[in-house]
Structure formats: C-alpha cells, structure tokens
Amino acid sequence: MGTRSRSTVGAGVVTAGTVALTMVLVGCAGDGAGAGATRAERPSDGKSASSTPASAEPSPSKSYPLSTTPQTIPSVREHTPARGPGWRPSSGRVVIGDAKLSDEGKLIADELRLKYAGKVKAGAGDVELALGGSGNPESYTMTVKSGRVRIVGPGDAGVFYGTRTLKQEVHGGGTAPEGVVKDAPAKPQRGFMLDIARKPFTVGWIKDRIREIGDLKYNQFGLHFSDDQAFRIQSDSHPEIVSPDHLTKAQVREIVSLAAERHITVIPEIDSPGHLGAVIRAHPDLQLRNTAGVATRGAVDISNPGSAKIVDDLLREYAPLFPGAFWHLGGDEYQALTVKNPEASFPQLAAAAKKKYGPNATVEDLTTGWLNDRVATMKPFNRSLKAWNDGFFRGGVVKADKSLEVAYWTGREIGARPPEEYLAEGRKMTNYNDEYLYYVLGQPNNFLYPTGQRIYESWTPLVVRGTTPVPAKYDSQILGGTFAVWSDLANSQTQAEVAQGIRMPLRATIQKLWYPGKPPLTWPQFVALANRLGS
C-alpha cells in the first residue's frame, strides 16, 4: 500500500538469538520524577499491568527516601516504591533461571558490560532473569531489592521488555529505583513499517531501526518491498522482476534474525492486484487494459490466470524467508475500480466475475475474490493475514475472508468505508491512520510530516480515521497501530534525515500503544526525557 495517490510516485513469541548492540539507542536514569503510575496512581482503566507476581515485596529502610517511579519510554504501567539504594551495574552478573532466556541474558549483559553467568544461583549485585507467573506473555515484573534485580515474566518476550526498562533506567550512570515494576502493553501489535520499494535503504540503516524500535518495545517491523517503482528482494522463482538495487536473501535473513532477537516480527507485503508495476515491466502481457487498449498503471489483469500464478509463486517463495506470524497481502488501490463504470471499461473483468461468481457479480466481487484466493494460497503457512481497508467493499456477492485483519489507513480513497463499519461486522483492525502515522517523503498529496507532539497529545489507538475516535466499545477489536514511512518522493530526504524525522513520532506512538490513558509527562518533559536517553 502506500500513499494517496500512489500514482504520483508513489504476536506470537519468536525464538530469539544473540547479537551485541553496536550503539545505545534508548536508556534511562531511574532517579527522576515519576513517569508512570504508582500503585496509588494506576491507569484510568483500573487494570493491573500484569498478572505476574513479584518475587517479594521490597522491605523498607529508614536510611533511604522512598523511591520514585522510573522514567522510561514508554512509561511503565505500575510501580510500587520502596526505600533502598536501588541498583547500578558494577561487579554483578546476569544469571538466568531458564535456558530459554540465554539470548535475553547475553544481550543485556553485553549492553551493561556485565558478566553473563548463565543458569546459576543469583547473588549480590546480580540481575536475574526468570520465567514464571501467568497471563500476558509480554508482561513482566521487575523487583529491585537488596542490591539485586529480578525480572520475571510468563514468556521470554516479557522478560526481554523488562531488560529494556532496566537498560533505560541505568543509562548514563543512572540508578534503577528500589521497588517493584509491573508492566505490560496496552496493545498487542506495535509496529513500524518501511517502504523500501520506492527508496532503497541500506541493511545497516534497517538494522539500526530494528535495534531502536526493539529498545522502545515495538514488536512488528513491516517491510513493503514491492511496488510500481521496484521489487527489492532477490527472487529465485522470478529473477526477472528484481530491481538492481535490492536485498539479497542472505541480507533478509540477517534482518529477520536480528528482529527475532528483539522479539520483533518482520511482516512482508507484496501488494496486489495493484502496485505491481515492477512485475508488469517484466511481464507486460499481464497489465490491465481498458476497451481502448490503454494500460492501467500498476494493475494486473485479474481475469488472466498468469497474474495469479506469478503472485502466488512469490508468496510461496517468500513464506519460508519470513517465518513470522503475520503477512500483509495489500489489496488497496486497484485502479480498475477508480473509473466510473468498471464493467464497461474492463469487460474482460466483468465477464470473469459473472463466470466465477454468478450473473450478479461485479468487478468489485472479482477483486474481492482475488484477495480471498491469496488468503487460500497462504493458508498452508498458517499466517495471520492483513489487507488495507480500501480492499474491503460494501455489499456485493463475494465477501472478504473473515480471517482477514483490516489495516485501516485512510478515508481518502474512493469507496473507503468508516472504520465503524468493519468493527460492527466483528472484524479485527490495526490502526495506520494516515492523518497521524504516515511519514510520506516529499509530503505529496497534502501529506505533512507527522510530529511527535501531535501524536502524543491527540492520537490514541481509537483514532483510526481522521481525528475522531471510534466508540470505546470497539477497543478490544483494535489490536494496535503502526507508524509508517512511505518513500513517495524518494530523494526528498536522506536516510539520516528520515531517521531524525521519525525519532520523536516513533517514541510518541509507542507511548500511546503501550501505556493506556493520558501520558504521565507533558510533551516538553517527554522530549527532555527522550533527549536524556539518547538515540
């Protein structure tokens, strides 16, 4: 998918590995003013952040003041203060209670320059990682007591997030405050998406962003690598479609592995049946043409069996390369549907629709059937599938597969339906609201670069379209959100400028996806915290 109009140019737990960070991206000193909720100041929803029990309540000591809530991005959900010296990395070790946590243990040990001791009993000054409790696998409890740190969670993802909190607390010589943090994300899907089809980004830049978002507790990285401009990943089944400047499969495996180590799922997108210009250049016979023989930009002829074959070849080829739980099928902006009378302009599509779905079927039905056929292609790979909201149509003979998750990005497109319509049908949704979460290079088509402040102060996951939230009763159906970089005018910014431009929007977005309710800090305080933590 992409931007309006792209014709201008355009949770599952993953097994982790081990890698050493080459730079500290976020961190935190733990002795600042409270940034999260203490036990007496829980989030407005009244729910505890985690069902994981703390290992022990911290014991008070008259020789220390009561600790304050750690300042982190995103804010921790709950902190029980205590009296004590807190913890700083010195001569302690990182130890684990379960071999499954070796990757998390080695990473935080490397980052804090501590010795990794493996599965041994914790001692004075140590950081102990353990599995335990029940509930949200992304939740964790971190107890700082008696000169030790213990992080425990039901799953390794939660323990990893606990290490991210600790890393921030002690950044720059800070102290992890005495007490107990109980933390968990408000939303299960927290994503950053990058369009490399219109603008190639280096492997190093992509890896830096994965390290950055991992430290911020994002868990999805979307990779839009196929569009009208280019096809950016090596293909063995169709090498003829691949652009000269592309990622090799070995490079993609490096990216996927690094993401997995940070508990981030890489979500690939091969958009179809529109946005296939790079494929069409190598296969012009597949391009959609109207009755006058005029080609339709980026659109394949979905009445031609060859169109489905090449897309399915690619889906099957890349499924093993991207083993994560999610996949994006695209489905937006099929230009055949933008004309006044699709059936008259494209009689071959109208005839195919009636033949396959009956006398009342339309080109919209054929397009929905195309999307459903791609769902069937991906079924053996057991993925949760997404499609853009303007690929779901009102009425019709053919209904979009019920398993498809709506990736809602816009109300600008022809036929775009209000988000409430999808939600009322019981569909799950992720928020890509182009009003707040679209960073479109060159700012074409009335897009403006989003600011962190606007996201921080006025966007929530319920604000799916425009600036008005959907009713709160739909909150559980909105699984999260994604901040997206679209490279429409590719030369408008360098990689470094993009990284700087998205820095605060990324931090504001994760604050709203992790922590429910009003943020504890004002925007100037949040910016000051981000600057102190570094990037």
Commentary on this structure:
There is one protein chain. The protein has 535 residues and is α/β, with parallel strands linked by helices. The protein has 13 helices and 18 strands. The strands form three sheets. An eight-stranded parallel β-barrel has the order 8-9-10-13-14-15-16-18, surrounded by four helices. A hairpin with a 2-residue loop joins strand 5 and strand 6. Helix 1 runs parallel beside helix 2, helix 3 runs parallel beside helix 4 and helix 11 runs parallel beside helix 12. The chain is elongated. The two termini are 29 Å apart.
What does the secondary structure layout of this molecule look like, with pairings?
Layout lengths: L77 E4 L11 E4 L5 H11 L2 E4 L8 E5 L8 E6 L2 E6 L2 H14 L9 E5 L5 E7 L7 H13 L4 E7 L22 H13 L3 E8 L4 H6 L4 E3 L5 E6 L4 H14 L7 E5 L11 H4 L1 H11 L5 H16 L5 E5 L16 E4 L10 H6 L4 E3 L6 E3 L11 H7 L19 E9 L8 H20 L8 H11 L2
Parallel strand pairs: 2-3, 2-4, 4-6, 8-9, 8-18, 9-10, 10-13, 13-14, 14-15, 15-16, 16-18, 17-18
Antiparallel strand pairs: 1-7, 5-6, 5-7, 11-12
Organism: Streptomyces aureus
GO molecular function, one term: hydrolase activity
Pfam families: Glyco_hydro_20 (PF00728), Glyco_hydro_20b (PF02838)
